[in-house]
Task: inverse folding
């Protein structure tokens, strides 16, 4: 009887939940529609998703990889943050990746991922992402899904209008959110106006290796450069940045930076500036920044400190930079797939301002200027305006595009996604999001060729969307089907960290080239042990180097003696497996770093400083086989003054 | 007879396929190997179906105490078989050419076929004997010693032909391209015999 009662309550509960779902999801829905929505997001066991979605982790400092439409998370790729799960930022090989001019910085705020493009279409070679706090740009290899390179951006602070790429991945562009003294110096904060600069950095990307190098930095007036996007198609060669705080306030910005009715979108003719610096233009400025490169063959990162950067004064290059007045502290700066429309998402208004590239060129040619700011011509608002979207929403932040001439804009304050038509500016549909949506993403929606099947809304506030987990919760994403005239909310899923933006790509582009193992024969790590016969232990003064190998299910060697208190012990571990998805782990008692997770064919190094005499065990942390639990060994640690010789063995 | 002789020559030449394509293929699939591991058995050695399959099969087999898969230099077969096949191709072509110039009768074609069949059966017998040894002659210190329900130690001889379930693996053993080409070639030599016989009759 009691069970029966529980059953009734459960039934009632589910009925209530069910009707809630209807109210939240759609205006008019019934069970049949809901079940078709379930089919849309259902990826059967063993089946694959249609798209990859790379979401920035925000304050997690990393990138998470999801499948669409299922919302299943596949991986967290460590980028700017130490990641004990794999040992990234803890292993000797990966520690250099987090070096900066400020020393080792084990965390950042990762914001805007962007996938490399060729001819304005996604090519799926690399993913770029910016570290906001200690300005950096990272490049992730999309066949290994590993961070391969991180370059620090000098003269920048709050690296927010980043990391967007030009349509042939000529440049990855990084703009500063905070204006700062350039070069940094000790001056009163009140002397901001006129003294602080906003550096926009154009970082060239080698078309073969992907290696980044800062080609030039444009030293702009000291506004805040919020977001940016490249021109494409006819506007290829230009880059557009939204600005706020053109008031140049240095305190209480929420009031003082909201006074001007219009801020600017800065239009940068980077091709012109590129030509200028190629002809010897620009000023070399002494600086100091880290450039960290991870070598795929040696599985090792190295840091180079760069001491010089080429700066450009934009007023010295006529026709290189113009300001487009844009109402109400615009946030997102988005360019449609044709390259003609530049959308300023005026975050403090209800309307969206759309500039026309054609109008802009005509205004420049007709010299229709409305004064200048710090020597940079301001174009007349009416002459560059392409149209205004009277949205009826509040707080537009970001816009993405489908392949049918529609745009989709998030409204943070009114918590909704609004679909509107490019050219006619009419609103076609609006759907609520839960809650306070930040950015949104359509796979390829920031390229010449969007794949307009889904839009993902990334929300800042979660509240009651999932079972409660105390005060702190994951953020929430909402998935909409956009194949019809009206958008349909079809799924909710939690996201890790705070995704500020995402980049999506059809699975068929990436999946076939995803690497399965690292070839042991190609392992060029300085400390690799390529055959288990070469496994050994060497002492150099107080340093002990253990060259160890792993294969299911043992370490070679697994008994080591002759280590002393006060030694610095390096475990250089090479995983000899050449089988897909057979990593081995390594951990030893009292390790002051993290474990290592070593992929097949890889070498990783962990440092252990034994502080106590004894016999200390180590083991494999990855359940690698039926005999995983047997995958263990001992290190004997003797007093500092003992004279026990080094010895090592396996199976004796 | 000319037609028959040309068929005989072509039939014998089909055996050359064995120098390029595998004779036999054994695939091992398991729940955790959705992409099965596999071995291609060539007349001159055993190769992985994918690059690291042999290493991975050996890695798994060490649990149950099986020997590692032999390298070409570890089995006399892998140096002898290529010589035998080359000799049979030569012989077949020679018989065909002699038949073309009417130096030998069509009966030689059948003779070659019978000889080749005997060699083939011997080869299969040898191959099966090796698999029996490989699957039953296990290391007494094996990590996993599994018994059959009747208490006898479990053995792991792959099937010569067809499917078998071995522990968590589904093993499929089938002739591969090289064997099929040999089969076609040998069939052609039989056809050559009958064509030769028919033309001999029509002349007499
Ligand atoms: Cu292991």
Result:
């Amino acid at each position: 009887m009691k069970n029966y009662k529980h059953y009734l309550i459960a039934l009632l509960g589910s009925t209530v939940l069910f009707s809630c779902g209807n109210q939240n999801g759609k205006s008019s829905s019934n069970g049949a529609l809901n079940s078709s929505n379930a089919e849309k997001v259902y990826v059967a066991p063993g089946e694959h998703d249609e798209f990859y979605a790379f979401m920035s982790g925000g304050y997690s400092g990393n990138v998470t990889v999801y499948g669409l439409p299922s919302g299943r998370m596949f991986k967290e790729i460590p980028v700017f943050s130490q990641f004990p799960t794999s040992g990234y930022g803890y292993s000797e090989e990966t520690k250099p990746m987090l070096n900066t001019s400020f020393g080792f910085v084990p965390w950042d705020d990762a914001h805007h991922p962007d996938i490399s493009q060729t001819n304005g279409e996604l090519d799926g070679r690399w993913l770029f992402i910016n570290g906001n706090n200690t300005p950096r740009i990272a490049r992730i290899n999309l066949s290994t899904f590993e961070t391969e390179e991180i370059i620090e951006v000098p003269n920048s602070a709050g690296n927010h209008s980043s990391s967007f790429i030009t349509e042939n991945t000529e440049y990855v562009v990084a703009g500063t959110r905070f204006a700062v003294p350039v070069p940094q110096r000790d001056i009163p904060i009140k002397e901001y106006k006129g003294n602080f600069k906003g550096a926009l950095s154009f970082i060239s990307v080698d078309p073969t290796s992907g290696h980044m190098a800062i080609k030039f930095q444009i030293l702009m007036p000291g506004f805040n450069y919020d977001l940016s996007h490249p021109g494409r198609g006819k506007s290829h060669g230009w880059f557009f940045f939204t600005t706020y705080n053109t008031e140049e306030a240095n305190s209480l910005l929420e009031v003082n930076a909201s006074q001007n009715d219009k801020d600017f979108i800065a239009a940068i003719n980077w091709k012109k500036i590129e030509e200028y610096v190629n002809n010897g233009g620009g000023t070399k400025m002494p600086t100091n920044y880290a450039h960290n490169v991870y070598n795929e063959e040696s599985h090792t990162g190295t840091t180079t400190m760069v001491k010089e950067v080429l700066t450009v004064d934009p007023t010295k290059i006529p026709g290189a930079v113009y300001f487009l007045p844009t109402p109400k502290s615009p946030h997102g700066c988005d360019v449609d797939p044709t390259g003609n429309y530049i959308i300023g998402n005026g975050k403090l208004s209800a309307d969206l301002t759309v500039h026309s590239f054609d109008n802009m060129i005509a205004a420049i040619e007709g010299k229709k200027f409305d004064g200048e700011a710090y020597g940079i011509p301001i174009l007349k608002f009416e002459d560059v305006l392409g149209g205004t979207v009277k949205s009826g929403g509040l707080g537009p932040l970001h816009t993405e595009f489908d392949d049918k001439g529609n745009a989709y804009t998030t409204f943070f304050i009114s918590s909704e996604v609004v679909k509107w038509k490019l050219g006619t500016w009419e609103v076609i549909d609006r759907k609520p999001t839960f809650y306070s949506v930040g950015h949104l993403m359509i796979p390829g929606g920031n390229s010449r060729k969007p794949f307009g099947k889904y839009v993902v809304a990334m929300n800042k506030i979660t509240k009651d969307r999932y079972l409660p987990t105390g005060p702190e919760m994951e953020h929430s994403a909402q998935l909409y089907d956009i194949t019809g005239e009206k958008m349909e909310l079809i799924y909710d899923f939690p996201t890790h960290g705070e995704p500020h933006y995402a980049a999506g790509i059809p699975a068929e582009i990436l999946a076939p080239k995803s690497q399965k193992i690292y070839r042991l024969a190609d392992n060029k790590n300085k400390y690799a042990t390529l055959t288990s016969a070469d496994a050994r232990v060497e002492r150099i003064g107080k340093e002990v180097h253990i060259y160890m190998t792993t294969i299911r299910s043992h370490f070679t060697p697994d008994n080591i003696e002759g280590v002393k208190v006060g030694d610095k012990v390096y475990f250089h571990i090479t995983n000899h497996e050449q089988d897909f998805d057979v990593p081995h782990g390594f951990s030893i008692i009292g390790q002051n770093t993290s474990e290592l997770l070593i992929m097949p064919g890889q070498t990783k190094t962990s440092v252990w400083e034994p502080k106590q005499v004894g016999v200390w065990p180590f083991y494999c942390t990855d359940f690698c086989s039926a005999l995983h639990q047997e995958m263990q060994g001992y290190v004997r640690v003797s007093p500092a003054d003992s004279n026990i010789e080094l010895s090592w063995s396996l199976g004796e | 007879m000319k037609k028959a002789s040309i068929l005989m020559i072509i039939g014998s030449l089909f055996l050359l396929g064995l120098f390029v394509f595998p004779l036999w293929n054994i695939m091992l699939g398991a729940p955790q190997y959705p992409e099965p591991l596999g071995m291609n058995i060539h007349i001159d050695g055993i190769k992985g179906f994918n690059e690291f399959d042999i290493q991975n099969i050996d890695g798994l087999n060490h649990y149950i105490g099986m020997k590692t898969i032999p390298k070409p230099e570890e089995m006399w077969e892998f140096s002898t078989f290529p010589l035998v096949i080359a000799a049979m191709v030569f012989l077949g072509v020679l018989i065909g050419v002699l038949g073309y110039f009417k130096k030998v009768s069509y009966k030689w074609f059948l003779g070659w076929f019978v000889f080749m069949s005997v060699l083939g059966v011997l080869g299969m017998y040898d191959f099966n004997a090796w698999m029996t040894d490989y699957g039953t002659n296990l290391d007494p210190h094996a990590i996993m010693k599994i018994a059959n329900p009747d208490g006898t130690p479990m053995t792991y001889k792959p099937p010569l032909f067809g499917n078998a379930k071995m522990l968590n693996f589904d093993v499929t053993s089938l002739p591969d391209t090289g064997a099929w080409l040999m089969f076609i070639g040998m069939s052609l030599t039989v056809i050559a015999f009958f064509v030769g016989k028919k033309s001999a009759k029509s002349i007499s």
